[in-house]
Amino acid sequence: MAASNGVGAAHSVDLSAVSSVADMIKMTVTRYRPGDDPVPVTESFFIPYHDDWVVLDALQYIKDYVDGSLSFRWSCHMGVCGSCGMIVNGTPKLTCAAFLRDYYPHEVVVQPLTNFPVVRDLVVDIEDFIHKLEEVKPYIIRDDLAAAPVGLGNEYRQLPEQVEDYKQFSMCINCMLCYSACPVYGMEPTFLGPAAIALGHRYNMDSRDQGRNVRMPLLGSSEGVWECTFVGECSVVCPKNVDPAAAIQRTKLATTNDMMKSILMPWSKR
Amino acid sequence: MPVGPRPATVPTFPWRTKSDWWVKNNRYFMYMVREATAIFAAAWVVVFLIQIPMMAGGLGDPRLYVGWLAFIRSPLWVIFSLTAFCFVMYHAVTFLGLMGTVMATRIGHLRVGGPLIVGPMYLVWIGITLLLILLVLLIPQLGG
Amino acid sequence: MYRINTIEPLWWALFGAGGMVAALILPIMILIFGVFIPMGAPDPAAYSAFRLHNLLDNWIVKLFLLAVIALPLFHWAHRFRYVLFDLGVRGARMPIAVACYGLAILGTILTAVVLIKA
Which among A268, B55, B56, C64 is least surrounded, fewest beta carbons within 10 Å? Predict the structure, then answer.
């Protein structure tokens, strides 16, 4: 198939070998090859344009036909796995859901997710994020688990409105676009961050859960919700309408109410 | 209990946010404007506080009252007030709008959030506005 | 119940109360005292020396003004503290917080003194 010219920063491709497309689009991609590049650099590729291609298709085209060393993460190609988040023309996006036609004929600039250390090219290190997800204890905690009867008919039942209480916050696919959009996390990496707080809130709002008092010391800590200044960009970029900003503000309100209650009514237990 | 940051397990190129992040995107910029409204609100109440001794003492010492009239009739005070008004209005619209998100809850089957919170807030806002115009400007007999 | 490592909820509650006052009450206060009265209110008796004295002598008015002046100061303190952080002032987080909330507390005391004397 087509071969790269391999010289300089720009690559072009022998179109006759690919298809009968006439239009080309310029893709400018961040490259960082540890050992070779002291700092991340950009590289531009001119590739065929298809109006039904997403940015991820374009990256795969580059990897398959132009430069096989280009590194990026992806898996499902359908907005479910949350692996292919990158910065597209300045905005955190799932590249599988960002259509080239929304940028064409302008160039498309693809960068690794901001606020994360870069491992290679478009791949960022997610260690801190995964750790934070674990810290909020994202599972149902019960006091009575040992004594609980098991089997059919002994499920914890919920009303539809009780499901609605947390459903929105359970839609997160861990794509980290919200962390990339959050200037607070960018400046203060100790901040627990949008997705992790939304996930903790999701379990706090679940009527089957009894672990609220176990999660709140972290969620309500100075590294938890209080770092947030409600910029709101996390909820803007979220591809699943989780609205982590809402989860954070409601946790602030809940923590404040709890604190007032414990001061005004120290005998009350929650 | 601090949780992070957890260091990477492989060599990486670190991230560092620049101080001008908020000019990179319109929504970030409007966020900064929203935060800056607090400066105008606070500045206005401080200058208003300075006027209180003049207003209260004007009956005993007419010079204070004349001084106060001269103060508030200076274009500087009116322009400052109009500027503060614009910023405080932007604060009001954003703050009340966000209340629909912050205070959202459920009462029985009824989900209360968004317009169901913001709407009544605006009604209270209109009520307070009309009440203050009435009490301060239109009924001078009150406390007169 | 549970314990948290911070008194942030206190500052956040004051910030919220100040934001509410600044949103619901300040706009019309600014228009009345910054625009309408200076430009000429419909009835000059509304701001005669006699009436202003009497109004400021009223405890309900004093309490109202204390809320209208002091709470926006805490609103400012909270936002300004984070704006400095947003603008890249890293470190010195504790001294900045003490300075911001300290100024708001000082302003509140000053306001109370002025209103009691008024």
Answer: A268
